[in-house]
Amino acid sequence: MGGIFGVASKNSCTLDLFFGVDYHSHLGTKRGGMAVYGEQGFTRSIHNIENTPFRTKFDGDLAELEGYLGIGCISDNEPQPLLIQSHLGSFAITTVGKINNLQELVQDAYQNGHIHFMEMSHGRINATELVAALINQKATLVEGLLYAQERIEGSMTILILTPQGIYASRDKYGRTPVMIGKKEDAFCASFESFAYINLGYSDYMELGPGEIVYITPESVETLSPPRQDMKICAFLWVYYGYPTSTYEGVNVENMRYQCGKLLSRRDESQPDIVAGVPDSGIAHAIGYANASGIPFARPFIKYTPTWPRSFMPQNQGDRNLIARMKLIPVNALIRGKKLLLIDDSIVRGTQLGETTQLLYQSGAKEVHIRPACPPLMYGCPYLNFSRSSSELDLITRRIIKDREGDCVSDQLLADYADPDSRNYREMVEVVRNHLGFTSLRYHRLDDLVEAIGISPCKLCTYCWSGKK
């Protein structure tokens, strides 16, 4: 995944940019970067943040990153922002999203006169550099941004920093958000709405799908109006979004609370306590507990001083180890108890299975699992939400393959995704048995959509339903 932030200010933008980007650290774990424009022109810094927090890596760069206009990012993929010089002038660019037709676009760029791309490790092309190449095929930055929106299959939200201001372009279907904040003498653009609140900004506007604006310290000008169709990612509310953020008027923490209430509505289990897997499962669990009357408790505590995020290491085995190390059991709340545990989702199942075994080893009598979303059935073609290279990394797809073989039709997958079908029930039972849960009940998609509370046609639920 990743997050982006930009500032246009009459005064120094450096600290606002530094803290605004840092507030997106939950969205990525690989690289961070900032670019500013000031009296010395463009200045840029990029660091690896796999094992060190963003602030630590960039704290020493702030004196060099002095300017009044700036953009930055947290990236799980390519290094960025990039500095570009072209017939459109000099600019910096940063992006968040995914390009599915990258090779096709690279070949088209060669045919249109683009000479070369910088090659990264393993022969990969920097997606942000490719976006810049698309933009540079047109006569203006706005025409180039519109062209990129049309040509890219997947999604791409873009910030472009010029000597005069910042262009912000939300992806064509609004799968990722862009919020604009305002304070005296400054505007900012942000993936996460909460990232600018403590910096003194207030909500100014939220870009619509495909909308392009031009931001200066004095104003925000709409250069291309919002499109009609929107497909914002529903998984932002379930997991990736920070609790204090709001997308399309719906706060993440409150949505998770409502989600837990709806989970309890269909549940007949009688646990002694309800708990959430830290951190994203906690609000779901509080909503469940308050609605059901079953006490909420924390049978394990997350140890965060050295490893704040379980998915920080690049290696899956290392991530599993860190996830296990940082959950410290509270035996007094576990031994002899029937526990109902809510996690945001089940992907591979490895970590939740190990957490369940930890609870049994600590004396739990029963462990009932309630994921806060439906079974994940499809890899996301729109956003880099996972490092998985195959849909067989999903526990559901491995089970379906074992049951049905290699040739599985879309119709059959749809039946497995239907919570009222026999195939669905049998698949869930295999997951339950394989991971050692006392019982397993996933959230229903219709209840999840109800918890979000915006029109279903505006939500992307592809990873659960397979419907684009």
TrEMBL record:
<comment type="similarity">
    <text>In the C-terminal section; belongs to the purine/pyrimidine phosphoribosyltransferase family.</text>
</comment>
<dbReference type="Pfam" id="PF13537">
    <property type="entry name" value="GATase_7"/>
</dbReference>
<feature type="binding site">
    <location>
        <position position="233"/>
    </location>
    <ligand>
        <name>[4Fe-4S] cluster</name>
    </ligand>
</feature>
<dbReference type="GO" id="GO:0046872">
    <property type="term" value="F:metal ion binding"/>
</dbReference>
<feature type="binding site">
    <location>
        <position position="344"/>
    </location>
    <ligand>
        <name>Mg(2+)</name>
    </ligand>
</feature>
<feature type="domain" description="Glutamine amidotransferase type-2">
    <location>
        <begin position="2"/>
        <end position="218"/>
    </location>
</feature>
<keyword id="KW-0408">Iron</keyword>
<keyword id="KW-0808">Transferase</keyword>
<dbReference type="InterPro" id="IPR017932">
    <property type="entry name" value="GATase_2_dom"/>
</dbReference>
<feature type="binding site">
    <location>
        <position position="343"/>
    </location>
    <ligand>
        <name>Mg(2+)</name>
    </ligand>
</feature>
<keyword id="KW-0658">Purine biosynthesis</keyword>
<keyword id="KW-0460">Magnesium</keyword>
<feature type="binding site">
    <location>
        <position position="380"/>
    </location>
    <ligand>
        <name>[4Fe-4S] cluster</name>
    </ligand>
</feature>
<keyword id="KW-0315">Glutamine amidotransferase</keyword>
<feature type="binding site">
    <location>
        <position position="463"/>
    </location>
    <ligand>
        <name>[4Fe-4S] cluster</name>
    </ligand>
</feature>
<dbReference type="GO" id="GO:0006164">
    <property type="term" value="P:purine nucleotide biosynthetic process"/>
</dbReference>
<keyword id="KW-0479">Metal-binding</keyword>
<dbReference type="InterPro" id="IPR029055">
    <property type="entry name" value="Ntn_hydrolases_N"/>
</dbReference>
<dbReference type="InterPro" id="IPR000836">
    <property type="entry name" value="PRTase_dom"/>
</dbReference>
<keyword id="KW-0328">Glycosyltransferase</keyword>
<dbReference type="GO" id="GO:0051536">
    <property type="term" value="F:iron-sulfur cluster binding"/>
</dbReference>
<keyword id="KW-0411">Iron-sulfur</keyword>
<dbReference type="InterPro" id="IPR005854">
    <property type="entry name" value="PurF"/>
</dbReference>
<protein>
    <recommendedName>
        <fullName>Amidophosphoribosyltransferase</fullName>
        <ecNumber>2.4.2.14</ecNumber>
    </recommendedName>
</protein>
<feature type="binding site">
    <location>
        <position position="280"/>
    </location>
    <ligand>
        <name>Mg(2+)</name>
    </ligand>
</feature>
<comment type="pathway">
    <text>Purine metabolism; IMP biosynthesis via de novo pathway; N(1)-(5-phospho-D-ribosyl)glycinamide from 5-phospho-alpha-D-ribose 1-diphosphate: step 1/2.</text>
</comment>
<feature type="binding site">
    <location>
        <position position="460"/>
    </location>
    <ligand>
        <name>[4Fe-4S] cluster</name>
    </ligand>
</feature>
<dbReference type="GO" id="GO:0009113">
    <property type="term" value="P:purine nucleobase biosynthetic process"/>
</dbReference>
<dbReference type="GO" id="GO:0004044">
    <property type="term" value="F:amidophosphoribosyltransferase activity"/>
</dbReference>
<dbReference type="InterPro" id="IPR029057">
    <property type="entry name" value="PRTase-like"/>
</dbReference>
